[in-house]
Specification:
This protein is of the alpha/beta class and 383 residues long. The protein contains 16 helices and seven strands. The mean pLDDT is 80.
Length: 383
């Protein structure tokens, strides 16, 4: 082994990195920025105030006394805010739908000194996040009722406006998984494929013809979008469908597909994911115009993909993010795709729902914006 030659290779690699500021930023700046963003979001979500309404439907002295006690105990908690305007079940349900409250503590009609039942109701669109507000409230409730009931524990039940409080993690995460991962893979494949068209000279030859830049971008978008539609159809079929394969000789029985239950029309879910995928196609074409190698396309992942995973409603609701990050989250396409998919798959909404219409309109606008940007930034020279 010749140490001089090894040193020469080492010096060459160091010089190559030194001349590539984008790689240095990916190596040193991106990890710090992402960890800082994650820490910011985590610290803010931990300090979020839970908005609670106490509803008494028992109509008896025991329920009235318990409701007063529960309200006083919850109001004394540092991260709990009581909404005193919500006093009946119908108003409470509408407050959950309007997202004016996060949790409703209800004493049902059968509540009494002998039948102590407390119902905790949430919206149900984001069960993973909503479950995080339950423990502190539940502990305070149990402590309050025990004091009045001579140490007997109450029965705490869970319910939700949409979906089921007993839904599996797979059911609750399906809208997030479908939206985020489709966006991620379509973006990567489009960016790399369009870059190959540039460095291979195909794009250069096209731009030497009478074909306009807008026509080129639109044609590529339709071409890549065609395969994106096939990918989205396959992903949704795998997530929503389930095919049981019986045992064949030594091969045990197995299943293909996740079999996730959706309350809404799968075609509406497909349309939402399709618009998200077309947005990823146009974004991938736009981003690839700034890259000179496939590695440089991948360098955009910490800038384009990771923030959408952190801010797009994947883990935390938008209104629980720091106030400075909420406007950023509201311009991300994944935010609207996940919101729309949750309304369709968990709440059973359709195209007549205003929330789904808004999500689709924003996703369609994002597609158009990045098509225009890609057409404006595409260059004639070969990279």
């Amino acid at each position: 082994m010749n140490l001089h030659r090894v040193a020469a290779v080492f010096v060459r690699i160091v010089a190559q990195f030194r001349r590539d500021p984008r790689t240095l930023a990916l190596l040193f700046v991106a990890p710090i920025a992402i960890i800082a963003l994650l820490g910011w979001v985590l610290s803010s979500s931990g300090a979020t105030t839970v908005r609670v309404a106490v509803v008494n439907e028992s109509g008896n002295p025991a329920g009235n006394a318990a409701a007063v006690k529960l309200t006083a105990v919850l109001a004394g908690q540092p991260k709990i805010q009581i909404d005193a305007d919500v006093t009946d079940a119908a108003t409470a349900r509408q407050a959950l739908i309007d997202k004016d409250v996060d949790l409703v503590v209800a004493l049902p009609e059968g509540f009494s000194a002998q039948n102590r039942i407390i119902d905790l109701e949430t919206l149900g669109l984001n069960p993973t996040s909503e479950a995080a507000v339950i423990p502190a409230v539940q502990q305070a409730l149990v402590g309050a009722v025990v004091q009045d009931a001579g140490g007997a524990l109450p029965t705490v039940e869970r319910s939700s406006v949409y979906g089921s409080p007993d839904a599996t993690q797979l059911d609750t995460l399906a809208p997030v998984v479908v939206g985020f991962f489709v966006y991620f893979f379509v973006f990567i494949l489009t960016g790399i494929s369009f870059l190959r068209e540039r460095i291979g000279g195909t794009l250069e030859r096209l731009m030497a013809t009478p074909v306009s830049r807008a026509e080129i971008v639109l044609g590529y978008s339709l071409g890549f979008g065609f395969f994106a539609t096939l990918q989205i159809a396959l992903v949704l079929a795998f997530v929503l469908g389930r095919l049981e394969i019986p045992a064949l000789g030594p091969v045990p029985a197995f299943a293909i597909g996740l079999g996730v239950h959706t309350l809404g029309n799968p075609l509406v879910a497909y349309l939402l994911v399709l618009l998200l995928g077309l947005g990823a196609v146009s974004l991938g074409i736009f981003i690839s115009t700034f890259a000179r190698s496939e590695f440089q396309v991948l360098q955009f992942i910490p800038i384009v993909i990771v923030p959408q995973g952190l801010l797009g409603g994947f883990f935390w609701p938008i209104d629980q993010l720091p106030s400075l990050l909420q406007p950023v989250a509201r311009i991300l396409p994944v935010t609207y795709a996940i919101d729309g998919l949750r309304h369709v798959m968990i709440a059973g909404s359709d195209l007549a729902d205003s929330a789904v219409q808004l999500d689709m309109a924003v996703l369609a606008a994002i597609v158009a914006i990045f098509v225009v940007l890609a057409a404006a930034t595409i260059r004639r020279e070969v990279a």
